[in-house]
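Hi everyone,

Forwarding the result from last night's run.
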Amino acid sequence: MQSEAALTSDERLHTLRVRAHIVAEIAACGGWISFERYMDLALYAPGLGYYSAGAHKLGEGGDFTTAPEISGLFGACVARQCAEVLHELPDGCILEIGAGTGRLAVDVLSRLDALGSLPTRYLILEVSADLRDRQRRLIAAALPQLAERVSWLDALPEAPLDAVILANEVLDALPVARFRWRVDGCDELGVGVVDDAFAWVSRPATSALTAACQRLASAAVGAWDSGYVSEYCPRLEPWARGVARSLGRGVVLWFDYGLPRPQYYHPDRHEGTLLCHFRQRVLEDPFVNPGLQDITAWVDFTAVAEAGRAAGCDVAGFSTQALFLAGLGIDREMRALAGADELRFARLAQQARRLLLPGEMGERFKAMAWTRGVERELSGFALQDLRHTL
């Protein structure tokens, strides 16, 4: 486990400030806050939270690496899928939610330019001022001829867009409630301060959380034992509905690590899916170094599908990342990016393995498409259809 002794002096001061902010909130709330609220503060408290402050989060030297940071092949394949949809949307744009370092935007725009399928605009919704600045600098340096097409939003657009909306590793960062199942009821696991340290503190779950847990338990493959612990994301449906409201005609593409509900809440997965990332290490304790480590939970893709349908979208595809990329011709993209450079082709092949292999990202990560007003089949889902598992 990463300890405070390994932090720089600035990092130590920052995490102490974040901790003091959360402790004050716990005290103001009578000694207990929900884990959902703790996660919200640790990730998004203005000027303090992980995504609101200036920590180096992504890529080399950061805390975790996403598919676009691993290889330009991911963005090239996503661009292929975008090109199919934009062909039906003459004035269509792309909206990327949470654009990280900007690498996906660069790779998608670069490949679409080569394909002659550029969108009218490339919009980025980014809540982190630090990441927004990194995105601006990368796009200006890598694609100066296309930089004017890119603009940033502070919130989802009010008027629906004819667009492809991209959301790569966004849903896993939505704050979650944590619960413990009992034969005679359900507890909510919240956060208190015990012996001057953050600690799990339980209390009886609200009627709303209890009802949600009962629905989840009924979908599980087998009964939960007493003491079964997992998470539930109450924000997913309203947040995803907001995304759907931003879509006129077009497609929403979701990429994240997650599972269909019956697998997510399998009785054998009795400690849930909560994970933290700090300096390329996976940790299990969300109370270590608040404000400096990412906190995530796997995505219930059944809930994503339900939210899409409730918002009037069709769930047009659900697949593993590996077969989504294969359906879009990742092998062809390797040759297109490498040209005659065999050394580069070999490097791309190694990167492709990380994107495709089951032990890497290939099966843990899923792709899902929502559509509205778009009838054509999407190539990314031609090789595999897992919608029946939802």
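Residues 1-390 form a domain with the Rossmann fold fold (CATH 3.40.50.12710).

Cheers,
N.
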